[in-house]
Amino acid sequence: MKTLNELIEAYTNHLQQGEIQIAYKGILEFLGKLRAEFIKKHPHYDVSSIYQGYMDMSYFSLSTKSLKDKGLKIAIVYVHDKGDFEVWLSARNRRISKQYESLFRGKSFDGITVFHDDNNQDAIIEYTLTSSPNFEDQVILTDVIEQGIEAFITAVSNLLIR
Question: Domain residues of the chain, as ranges?
Fold first, then answer.
C-alpha cells in the first residue's frame, strides 16, 4: 500500500493536468441545473442546497410534506466512484432510518428495482437512475433523472400508504 505522501503526490499530479477540476465542476454545475429544474417544476417539494461532498458523492435532497412528516427525504446523488446517478430514500437520523428499514427492504416497488448497499448508512433503499449519464445531452439526462425520481417517489409513497 502506498504511503499518504505517495497518494498525495499522485493526487497533486492528477490535479496539475487540470481535467479533474473540469469534470468535478461540470458535475456540480449539472447538479445545480437539475436542482433549479426541480424547484421550478415541483414547487410542492422542499429542495435542499447541494452538498458537494469529498469526491465520494454529491447530492441535494427533496421532500414532500408526507415524507417530511415521517422524517424521510429523497436524495438525488451522483456517486463519483461509480459515475452514476442514484436516488436514495434517507431519514433525518439513524433512529428513523432503522424504523423504516424493515418496511422497505425486500418489498416490491411498482416496477423499479431498488437495492441497498450495506456499506451505505445514509440510505434506507437506493435506486440507480442512470449508470451511464451523458453530460453532453443534459436535457435528456435531466428527463431520465426526473422520470426515475418521480417513479421512485410514487413507489415509496404507495408502500407507505399500505
Answer: 4-161
